[in-house]
Design goal:
This protein is α/β, with parallel strands linked by helices. The chain is built from 14 helices and 9 strands. The chain has a 5-stranded parallel beta sheet, covered by helices on one side. Helix 7 crosses helix 8, helix 7 packs across helix 9 and helix 9 crosses helix 10. The structure holds adenosine-5'-diphosphate (ADP) and magnesium ion (MG).
């Protein structure tokens, strides 16, 4: 993989190392997201038959649900190279132009957080996606000229936590917009089981299911809990991980029995204590929480909505009965 310079230097470097060990190595190891996977497989196979680049596609959904992992499988399926970059990390047009002109035919360019790209940089993509061509403007004013540079036929795979945040010109240039959903408990349990094998951990079924239930429908979180549980088991010197190590780890990680973490609970709490359960507008809620709107909207709210802890209406967000009961319990 190239262009690491344009990857945002993730604070959790250790986690990313661990994550790369746990990446699905083939479609057979990629659990769940059936609709997305079906679509992708057809796009990959079609490109292989045509011996052309795959169509551009957009992967959207909350963090940790397998977008990057899928991009890797796409490149593998095409037998081509994957170039991984982070949208906001590219600051100059020239940097993206350099990346694009370095692509080989049928390569995959994966742009993470594509909705956060600088607009001037993003504009370079339009003609590259549409005509495999770069339009570079040289000079300014009346003497300005446009120079065109060819780009090898490539596939752009964009990832975003929210496809609604994409600019229109960019969105319309994607053939497929594939949405990732939170995982079912059974799917997460299978992922935990497979990853335990990869990490050479022995864990019983009850413990697997408990991790799956408390991971917010998110494989990345399941991996994180599994790692913590493994540490516990090592320290305690137990051979096979069981429920008790999982419970202790969840407690340390401040994850409750519904899988909600501290921030999730804080959101519910603020809604109740400051706004009498709502309805409260997202802006006001985020201001009180001292969090960015995009973090709340893209990362936390979708799960709380899906699990019915809160509801959303044109008047704002409201705490549901389930949300209120949960607060009383904790
Ligand atoms: N469908 C899946 N099957 C198995 N493991 C998965 C799946 N999706 C995600 N994972 C696990 O979760 C981790 C994080 O996934 P990742 O692809 O980085 O998510 P995203 O890019 O959407 O934030 C991966 O390293 C992998 O271990
Ligand atoms: Mg990712």
């Amino acid at each position: 993989m190239e262009m690491n310079r344009f990857l945002s230097s993730g604070s959790a470097n250790q986690e990313s190392q661990y994550e790369s060990r746990l990446r699905p190595q083939g479609f057979s190891e990629y659990i769940g997201q059936e609709k997305v996977v079906q679509n992708i497989k057809v796009m990959v196979e079609s490109a292989n038959i045509r011996k052309q680049a795959m169509d551009h596609c957009l992967l959207s959904g909350p963090p940790g649900l397998g977008k990057t992992s899928l991009a890797m499988l796409i490149a593998q399926g095409l037998g081509s190279e994957l170039h991984l970059i982070s949208g906001p990390a590219i600051e100059k047009k020239g940097d993206l132009a350099a990346i694009l002109t370095n692509l080989q035919p049928r390569d995959v360019l994966f742009i993470d957080e594509i909705h956060r790209m600088h607009i001037s940089v993003e504009e370079i993509l339009y003609s590259a996606m549409e005509d495999y061509r770069l339009d570079i403007v040289l000079g300014e004013g009346p003497s300005a000229r446009t120079m065109q540079i060819e780009v090898a036929p490539f596939a752009l795979v964009g990832a975003t936590t929210k496809s609604g945040l994409l600019s229109n010109p960019l969105r319309t240039r994607f053939m497929g917009n594939l949405h990732f959903d939170y995982y079912q408990v059974e799917e997460l349990a299978q992922i935990v089981k497979n990853n335990a094998v990869k990490l050479d951990i022995s864990i019983d079924e009850e413990a697997e299911t408990l991790i799956a239930k408390c991971s917010r429908g998110t494989p990345r979180i399941a991996n994180r809990v599994l790692r913590r549980v493994r540490d516990f088991a090592l320290v305690e010197g137990v051979e096979t991980i069981c429920k008790s190590q999982v419970l202790k780890s969840l407690d340390l990680m401040e994850i409750d029995d519904c899988g909600l973490d501290r921030m999730d609970r804080k959101i519910l709490q603020v809604m109740e204590e400051y706004y009498g359960g709502g309805p409260v507008g997202i802006e006001a809620l985020c201001a009180t929480l001292g969090e960015e709107r995009s973090t709340i909207e893209d990362v936390f709210e979708p799960y709380l909505l899906k699990e019915g802890f809160i509801t959303r209406s044109p008047r704002g967000r409201e705490l549901s009965d389930k949300g209120r009961e949960h607060l009383q319990k904790s």
